[in-house]
Amino acid sequence: MTEHARVPGQLPGELTLRRPTPADHPRLRVALAEWWGGLGGEAGARQRQLLVPRLFLQHFADTSFLVERPDRTLHAFLIGFLSQTEPETAYIHFVGVCPEGRRDGIGSALYDRFFATARTAGRSQVRCITSPNNRDSIAYHTRMGFRLEPGDRLDDHGVPVQEDYDGPGLDRVSFVREL
Ligand SMILES: CC(C)(COP(=O)(O)OP(=O)(O)OC[C@H]1O[C@@H](n2cnc3c(N)ncnc32)[C@H](O)[C@@H]1OP(=O)(O)O)[C@@H](O)C(=O)NCCC(=O)NCCS
């Protein structure tokens, strides 16, 4: 973590923000494997990679962001889109900040950008889901003003879990935030 004055919605230091392109796909795959602290082992890494296929960089680039360091290496990213089915909804599919860049306002800066993009597009709520075992993600989303949606059961931490949400054994926690 670097020392600097945090300005809501702004990136610190020399970091730059841009839209992703399909050429960014290989390094996003590396980040998806390496930035989740080994969550789910090799199968988890593979699952995350397959959840962000190239199509997101081809067809959802206008609502997605990539943060780079001065040397152009990847620092953070957000993959999001506007729901085609629910005109009031925007959806954050994946977010990641490199392990050494956390708790420095980058995640919230990316979310603030996405919220602004969604508001400009007339959206009034943002949705996302996460795995029940991703405690960091649950803490972060709660801090970012998301509400936990009701589940089928409460886990050991009192978090409502929707069982088999994405298939047998693939439980999820669902969040919504008004804009
Ligand atoms: C979740 C993640 C994106 C947060 O990014 P970040 O840049 O560290 O978040 P920020 O520094 O902007 O934090 C925003 C707020 O959330 C809080 N927060 C962030 N991570 C937290 C954690 N693990 N536990 C508790 N609070 C947390 C911060 O304290 C901050 O609150 P504050 O404004 O009161 O200080 C980052 O930890 C990450 O990439 N994790 C691995 C990937 C992942 O799990 N992604 C989410 C699921 S797709």
TrEMBL record:
InterPro entries: AcTrfase_GNAT_prd, Acyl_CoA_acyltransferase, GNAT_dom
Record domain N-acetyltransferase: where: 15-168
Pfam families xrefs: Acetyltransf_1
SUPFAM superfamilies per the UniProt record, alphabetical: Acyl-CoA N-acyltransferases (Nat)
UniProt region (Disordered), positions on chain: 1-20
Signal peptide (from-to): none
Gene3D superfamilies membership: 3.40.630.30
Name this protein carries in UniProt: GNAT family N-acetyltransferase
Originating organism: Streptomyces mooreae
Lineage: Bacteria, Bacillati, Actinomycetota, Actinomycetes, Kitasatosporales
